[in-house]
Design goal:
The chain is α+β, with helices and mostly antiparallel strands. It is about 25% helix and about 30% strand. It has a three-stranded antiparallel beta sheet with strand order 1-4-5. A two-stranded antiparallel ribbon has the order 2-3. A two-stranded antiparallel ribbon has the order 6-7.
Length: about 140
């Protein structure tokens, strides 16, 4: 199991690479920096949007021992194709953006929708999105 040694939001003084999406964290951008330990110590830098999406999709992506960049990207691509693309103006059998997923659209969608697992018969389940109730944030009353 991955152990979090330290975690802090920082303002980038130089460009970094987001360990989730692989994109550039630009100079002046606020990002999340973690020091982690599995067998060895290592760092993990992430866009704030990617960190939020990873947190919201953690159970959907279903990591056993932490979420790798590949897990994150594959999970976002599947989520995007299932929940975002069907209603997207830029989708016509293929994304006009040329990207495997639209992280900002996933982030915006998850701000207004809860992503929940609904149990079905015989231990099976299905994922669905439910609009967040007004006055509630992250399942808690405001």
């Amino acid at each position: 199991m991955v152990e979090i040694i330290s975690e802090k939001d920082r303002k980038a003084r130089k460009p970094h690479i987001c360990d989730y999406c692989g994109g550039t964290i630009e100079v002046g951008e606020i990002y999340n920096h973690c020091v982690l330990k599995l067998d060895d110590m290592y760092t993990w830098d992430a866009h704030m949007v990617c960190k939020s999406v990873a947190s919201d999709l953690w159970d959907y992506i279903d990591p056993c021992e932490g979420m790798t960049a590949d897990d994150f990207q594959e999970g976002c691509q599947t989520f995007c194709r299932t929940f975002i693309c069907p209603d997207c103006e830029q989708w016509d059998d293929e994304c006009e953006q040329g990207e495997p997923f639209c992280i900002q659209k996933i982030y915006d969608f998850l701000k207004t929708n809860d992503f929940v697992r609904e149990k079905r018969k015989y231990g099976l389940f299905v994922w669905k999105c439910v609009p967040k109730k007004e006055g509630l944030t992250d399942g808690r009353e405001s």
